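Fold Annotation — chain and its backbone

Fields — amino acid sequence, C-alpha cells

___
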Amino acid sequence: MREPPDNLTEDALRACLRDRYGLSVADLTFLPLGYDSSAWVYRAQATDGATYFLKVRVSIENEAGLVVPRYLRDHGLAHVVAPLPATDGALWTDAGDYVLILYPFVEGSAAWGREMTPQQWRDYGALMRQVHDIPVAPDLARVLRRDRFVPDGAAAIRRVDAHISTRHFDDPAEQRLARFWQERRGVIRILLERAEDLGRRLAAIAPPLVLCHADIHTANVLLDTDGRVWFVDWDETLLAPRERDLMFVVGGISSTLVSPREEAYFFEGYGSIKVDPLALAYYRYCWAVGDIGAFGEQVFFRPDLGPDTRREGAEMLMGLFETGEIVDIALGSEIPAG
C-alpha cells in the first residue's frame, strides 16, 4: 500500500511491539511498497540497533502463509524470510482492528525491475525446486489449503460487472475505470469463462500437488546486498501443481519481467521438468482474473482507501490489458484440446 492505515497510529504500533515482542523501537518508518490493499509495511529500528520488517494486515486469511516459511526455515532453507515469534510463541499478534507480523530485515531490494545475473536466475530456480521437493509433514498439511481449481477473482469480477451496469459515478477513478471496463467487457468475460473451464478440466485430471509459494514473481524475490536470492511474502502459499509457481517464469506474468534466456538460466537451477500446458494456461487465466477482480474491488468497494490508492488501482487494472501483459499472455496461451 502507498498510504498508511488512517486508524492505526505509530504510537499504537510501538506499544504493541513493546508489549508483544519485547521490542523497544527507536524509529518506525512506513514503506510505500506493494499493491495489496489490505496490507502495510514498516521498517522498525530497535534501540539496540537491530532492524526489523513489520507487516500490518487487516486479518490473517491464510495461516499457512506464516507457518510455511517458518517450517522451511527450520528445515534448512536458509534463504526464506520467516516471521519471528512473539513472546508467547505466536507468529502474529493483534493490534486493534489489525494483526502484526514481525520479520528480520534483510537489507536489499526486490528483483522486480532489476537485471538479475545468470547465477541469480539459477539460484531462483534452485530455491524454488527446494520448496517444491520438500516433504510436507502431516501437521503442516493440516493448515495448508489445497488448490480446488476455482479461479480467485471470479466472484469479484461478477460483482464489479453488475455494479457498473446500474450506476453513474462522480469519482474520477470510478468514472475512468467504469468506462474502460465497459469497453473491455467482452474480453473480461472471455477471460473468466476460460479460467473456469480450464479449472474444471484440471480438477478432473487431479494432477499431483506440491508445496507452492503461489506468488513468486520477482517482486517477492529479494536480492540482498551480497547478491543472494531470498523468497519473501508467503501469504498465498498452498498445495498446487508446480505450474502455479512456474507460471511466473515460463513466459511470466509480463513480458518485461523474464526473457527466454533468463527462463533458460532459471531451469538450469530448477532442473529438467515437463511443464503441463493445461495447468500453465489455467494459472495464467487465473492470474488475469484475480488481478482484474482485486483491482476492481479496490476502486469500487473500498471507500476506506485514499484517492491515490484507488486511482492507482484503476491504472493497474487498465495496465493488465497492455501488449505483453498478463491478459495478452493468457489469451496467447497454448490450450490442449479436450
Notes: The beta strands are 25-31, 39-46, 51-57, 93-95, 98-104, 108-110, 210-212, 221-224, 229-231, 238-240. The mean pLDDT is 95. Residues 118-331 form a domain with the Transferase(Phosphotransferase); domain 1 fold (CATH 1.10.510.10). The longest helix spans residues 277-300.
